[in-house]
Amino acid sequence: MRQDTEDWFSNIKDQEPIQTKFDIYYFCLMLGFSSGRCSNPAKKCPEFTDFVDNFVKDYRSSQTLIIGLLLRTELSRLGISINEKDEIRNLLLDLVDPTTQTNLTDKGMDKMNEYASGGYDYIAEQLDSKPYHVEEFLITYTNLLQEAVDNNPKWQSATVEHTEILEQI
């Protein structure tokens, strides 16, 4: 996670229901996926930390969904149709490794971090200031996420998946 991301969330990072850095990472990741934004975290902010090597306990049950959203987002970004089986297979081999704790390759983890970084960029651009009260932030975040989904033509055909994203929040 980028240091500027941690700084931006510093006022609400310990307010319920936020319990871990992964909660903040997840907020950013979902906005990255839904907006289609990704950025290299090392180029955006030279100070960043690797804070986990796997999905934290509260997110393990959603691990498959999160990886599925990564794959769907990458398929959309690359313009790969569901009928292009060879391209899908190659993407899976590039991003997914069922023998690791995360079920992702290093490239898959890097790509997920890029979407989390892009999601932070998106949220910081959309809001006037960093959040001070978690309740207000969650309402604003939910609206911002819905708006990002609605404005991303690559996601408009996936209504069921959008509902699942919002239910996870």
Largest sheet: none
| Global outline | globular
Q: Please tally the helical runs, counting DSSP H or I stretches of 4 or more residues.
A: 9
Number of strands: 0
Rg on CA atoms, Å: 15 Å
DSSP helix fraction? 55-70%
Residue-averaged pLDDT, rounded?
A: 87
Q: What distance separates the N and C termini? A: 19 Å
Order of helices and strands: HHHHHHHHH
Q: What share of residues are in beta strands?
A: under 5%
> Pairing-aware structural class of the strands and helices?
mainly alpha
Are there runs of 5+ residues with pLDDT below 50, and where? none
Structure characteristics:
169 residues, mainly alpha, 9 helices
Give a description of the structure.
This protein has helices at residues 3-8, 21-35, 41-44, 57-60, 63-78, 85-95, 106-126, 134-151, 159-168. It is an all-alpha fold and 169 residues long. The model has no long low-confidence stretch (mean pLDDT 87). Helix 2 packs across helix 7 (106-126) and helix 2 packs parallel to helix 8 (134-151). The longest helix is centred in the C-terminal third of the chain and has 21 residues, at 106-126. The two termini are 19 Å apart. The protein has nine helices and no strands. 62% of the residues lie in helices and 0% in strands. The chain has a domain at 3-50 and 106-168.
